[in-house]
Write a structure and sequence with these properties.
Blueprint lengths: L1 H4 L2 H29 L2 E4 L3 E4 L3 H7 L2 H36 L4 H12 L2 H11 L8 H8 L11 H28 L4 H9 L5 H11 L1 H16 L3 H6 L11 H11 L3 H34 L1
Antiparallel strand pairs: 1-2
Helix pairs in contact: 2-14, 3-14, 4-8, 4-11, 5-8, 8-11, 11-14, 13-14
């Protein structure tokens, strides 16, 4: 194996086709999209070179600013919810249910494989106010409260979106983090228990540090996914009411395909790409600092 991996020609033969496909499928569209930022128009009416006018427009566009703010707020809230609830489920699987956790993991994971539209329709019915009250409003009125129009206000609509996406995906992060917990050596756990560590102390000083790599991976995976949220918001609220729940992805989609402004849509996409790279860099730096502190 060492002889094979040490041969540069063999490496090129093995990796060349994969790198070629990756370049064609991933890198070429990125470069084309970057080139579109310097133009306005579309494939039907043609393109006009405008230089950096799209970037100037981007910095002064209040709708894009609102979409960026919503995207960041959504990413923070849903990422924390996904990873926190997922880690709680992983602890439950590993230390409470143990071998009996297989059925529970399957049931909790089931929403992950459900179609987005089906999940959105389910939550529309749960939180509906008209023509019939949903389960949530029926619960509120049973205690003498007033039914709420959850999708008539940006704040309450954001709450429903966050609850839906956390509920839908926490099973995935529960399984992902569970795979990290079961890799913790049993002799380390036994030694900690013999030293008197139990409950929160065991989690805080043994489980959490040893599961930190998979936890950091989950954070990066989650926040990059939430920053690029599209289908769940589109299916549940379509960015409404108005544009109060419209993330950058929907703003990009509208500019590119509704208004036919490929250049400006690509500029919004470039903004989203830079945000994703910046957030990933911050998470990596934070993880590196934590490792340095732990080592010292």
């Amino acid at each position: 194996m060492k002889n094979v991996l040490g041969d540069k020609r063999t490496i090129a033969i093995l990796l060349g086709p994969a790198l070629l496909v990756y370049s064609v499928v991933m890198l070429v569209p990125v470069l084309v999209s970057l080139g579109y930022t310097l133009f306005e128009g579309n494939a039907i009416v043609g393109f006009t070179f405008v230089g950096f006018d799209n970037f100037v427009r981007l910095f002064g566009d209040s709708e894009v600013h609102a979409a960026l703010l919503f995207t960041l707020k959504y990413a923070v809230v849903v990422t924390i919810g996904q990873v926190l609830f997922g880690y709680g489920l992983a602890l439950l699987y590993a230390f409470a249910l143990k071998r009996a956790s297989g059925l529970i993991r399957t049931l909790v994971f089931f929403p992950v494989v459900m179609p987005t539209v089906a999940v959105a329709l389910l939550f529309q019915q749960l939180f509906s106010v008209a023509p019939t009250q949903g389960v949530v409003n029926s619960f509120i009125t049973s205690f003498g409260g007033v039914p709420l129009d959850w999708f008539g206000d940006g704040g309450s609509a954001f709450f429903v979106i966050a609850i839906m996406d956390i509920w839908r995906s926490m099973g995935f992060y529960g399984v992902l983090l569970y795979s990290g917990l079961i890799d913790i050596p049993e002799d380390v756990m036994e030694s900690a228990r013999l030293d008197g560590a139990s409950g929160w102390k065991l989690i805080r000083h043994i489980v959490l540090p040893l599961s930190l790599p998979v936890l950091i991976s989950s954070l990066i995976f989650s926040i990059n996914g939430t920053l690029k949220v599209f289908d769940s918001v589109l299916a549940l609220t379509n960015g409404g009411p108005g544009s109060t729940t419209s993330p950058l992805t929907i703003a990009m989609f509208d500019q590119s395909f509704t208004y036919g402004q490929y250049g400006y849509g690509s500029t919004i996409a470039m903004l989203l790409t830079m945000v994703c790279l910046a957030v990933t860099f911050v998470v990596f730096r934070g993880a590196a600092r934590n490792r340095q502190r732990a080592a010292s």
